[in-house]
Amino acid sequence: MNLFLKKDIRTEELKYKRWLIYIAVFLITYLLLLTSIAPKKHNLSVGDIAPVDIKAPIDTIDEIATQEKIQEAIAKAKEDKQYSVKSEVKTQAIDNVNKLFSKISSEISSSKEAKDKLTEVKKIDAFKLSDDEYNTLLALSASQVSDVQTITVNTLEEVYSKNIEDNNYEALQNARNIALEELQSNNLDRSLEECLTTIVYSQIKPNFFIDTEKTEEKIKEAEKSVQKEVIKKNQIIVKEGEPVTERQIEILEELGLLSNGITKSNVSSFLALAVLVALILFIQFSYIYKERPDVFKNTKLITLISSINIIVLGLSMGLNIISPYIIPVVCGAILMTILIDYRISLVTNLLNLIFISIIVGFNPS
C-alpha cells in the first residue's frame, strides 16, 4: 500500500515539476521575444529636438490622418447636395388651371346671375383672385376662354422647363420673370394680362428639393471610398535634429513610441505573442509526450531540451545585433540530436525557427 502511495506521490511531483518547467520556459521565452518586438520608447514633447531618427516599428493605420480625410470627404459630399425633381408640382399647377377655366367656361355658358356665377367660380380654392379679376375672366367669350387657357398652360410649361429650387428666392424670381415675359409676348388686354399673371404666379412653386436619402448615401459612399492613411514600417516619423511637432507626437502616441504608457496596439501585440509562445511550447511538449514518453517523464531531459532552446534564443538575440548570418540555429539542433533524439531535435528546432524569425524581425535577408 505504501509502495503505491509513494508511486502516486512521485508521479504527482513529476507532473508538478513538468508544469513548473513549462511555465518557466514560457516566461523566459516570452520575455526574450518581448524585448525584440517591444518598440524603443522616447521621452519627447512638442518642441523637443529629436536625438535620433524615429521610425515606425510596424505598418499601422494613421487614424488621425485617416479621420481628417474622411471628414474632408464628408464635407465635400455635403456641399454636393443631391436633389430630386417633384414633377407632381407642375402637374398639379396645370390641373388647377384647367379646373379653373373649365369652371369659367361652364359658368359663362350658364344662365345664372352674374353674382351667382362669381360665387361658383370662387369655390375653386386653388386661386385667390379679386372679384374684378374673376369678372374679367367671366366676361370672356367661350373661344377666348379656350385661348386664354392654352396661353396659361403654355406659360406654366415654359416656367417649369427649368427647375425651381426650394428655399431659393432667386430661382423663384427668375421663374416669375419667365412667366411675365411669356404672358407679355401674347399682347393681351392689360386687365386680362394682370389677371393671368396673378393666376400663374400663384401656381409657381419650388419643384427641386434636396433629397436627404440620396445625400446621406453620397456621404456614406464618400466615407467608404476614403483610403486609409498607412504609416509603413521603417518610415521616418521624426528626423534627427528637428523639433517635434504636435502632429508627430500624436503619431508617436498611436505607435506606442512615447514613454507615457502602453497603447492598445502594444497590448494586442503582447497578447498575440503570449498566445504564440504558449502554442509553440505546447506543440513541442505534446510531440515529445507522444513520440518519446520516456523523455517527457524525465524532468532532467526536459530541462536539458528547454535549456538548449533558451540558450539558442539568447545567443540569437545577441548575435543578431552583429549579423543574423551567425545565429547558431544548427548548433542547437546538432547538440539535441547527439544528446537526445533526432526526431525531437528536428521538430523542436523547426518550431524554434518561428521564435528566431521574430528576433530577426521576419527579415528574410
List keywords for this structure.
single chain, 365 residues, mainly alpha, 2 domains, two-stranded antiparallel ribbon, two-stranded antiparallel sheet, 15 helices, 4% strand, rod-shaped
Written account of the structure:
The structure is a single chain. With 365 residues, the chain is mainly alpha-helical. The protein has 2 domains: 2-41 and 261-359, no CATH class; 83-210, no CATH class. Helix content is 67%, strand content 4%. It contains 15 helices and 6 strands. Helix 1 (2-37) runs parallel beside helix 13 and helix 13 packs antiparallel against helix 14. The longest helix is centred in the first third of the chain and has 36 residues, at 2-37.
List the secondary-structure elements in sequence, H or E. Answer: HEEHEHHHHHHEHEEHHHHHH
Strand content: under 5%
Number of helices: 15
State the major sheet.
2 strands, antiparallel
Shape: rod-shaped
Number of domains: 2
Q: Whole-number radius of gyration?
A: 44 Å
Task: Please identify the structural class as seen in this structure.
Answer: mainly alpha
Low-confidence stretches: 1-7
